[in-house]
Amino acid sequence: MAQQFVERVGVRKHNYARTGRMVGYGGLVFGPAATQWYKLLTKIKFESATTTTIVRVLADQSIFASLNLGFFLSSMAYLEGASPKKRLEDKYVQALEKNWLLWPPVQTINFTLVPLEHRVLVVNVVSLGWNCYLSWVNNQGGIEESVVEEVKQKVA
Length: 156
Hints:
Low-confidence stretches: 141-147
Shape: elongated
Mean pLDDT: 83
Largest sheet: none
Structural class: mainly alpha
Distance between the termini: 39 Å
Number of strands: 0
Strand content: under 5%
């Protein structure tokens, strides 16, 4: 979606390996991890529903979101042949700040109004847009940048 609707690269220049990496990450890493995470979050319970929601959102954003984002960026960099360390240095804070603009309100609604069995579905729907953003952020520093940097270092 990011390549066609955001970057508008067209079908001929579509990077199918990039699409495959995103699909693989979503299906093999994020989906199973998120399902287990939401089950774990349901064990956080306080007398106050408001306190329960606040603690769940804080846990989600401070633990799961930060770890998942770091793993996403570093694993994508590795699969692209780029430096995971450099990708994290260049992109992590920027993406985490955007994450915190979007996900706390989404998760507050999700944890307050949506039954457990539908929470991953809500996240998946919102993730359509979020993943376009992540794909775009991640792609602004893929193998092309790392190759240019490597050549510069060899020439210098």
